């Protein structure tokens, strides 16, 4: 059974090791790290701040995945997912979907999220399909310069809670 626990520096080497080449590294991190490969302390540096909730997915004692949840703005009902990755040797076994469902539940129940957003590169087809399978929908496109190239990205979101207001009539 998979669980999510807080990320710690001892997880970093394992997680960073899943990016076998610079292309896979950029799929995961976009332009957030200067150089490939990144060092564990650089990963820790990415998570400084009060609005960051990095989580590690584990099955038993084995690290299976990683995800960052953060408040991207003052609005504490909006969570942004980032740095989403699953152990490349464990892909295709449903761990990505399971991790995302757990992260969605955590965002809703622990952080009060009503909306969750993320960005994913358009040519990362397996990730796009995984996000769609748990309820995310594409809401827009953008592009970013990555290592001298223009990479297209989908913006995706899922609404996880709706607040309904009733108006009483007398």
Spell out the key features of this protein.
35% strand, 170 residues, alpha+beta
Roughly how many Å apart are the termini? 52 Å
SS field, number of helical segments:
5
- Largest sheet, described in full? 7 strands, mixed
Mean pLDDT comes to 93
Secondary structural class: alpha+beta
Radius of gyration: 17 Å
Task: Give the overall silhouette.
Answer: globular
Low-confidence stretches: none
Helix share bin: 25-40%
Beta-strand percentage range: 25-35%
Order of helices and strands: EHHHEEEHEHEE
Order of neighbouring strands in the sheet with most strands: 1-2-3-4-5-7-6
Q: How many strand elements? A: 7
Concise summary:
The chain contains five helices and seven strands. It has helices spanning 9-17, 22-29, 40-46, 95-109, 125-133; strands spanning 2-6, 52-59, 62-70, 78-86, 115-121, 137-146, 149-159. Helix 1 (9-17) packs across helix 3 (40-46).
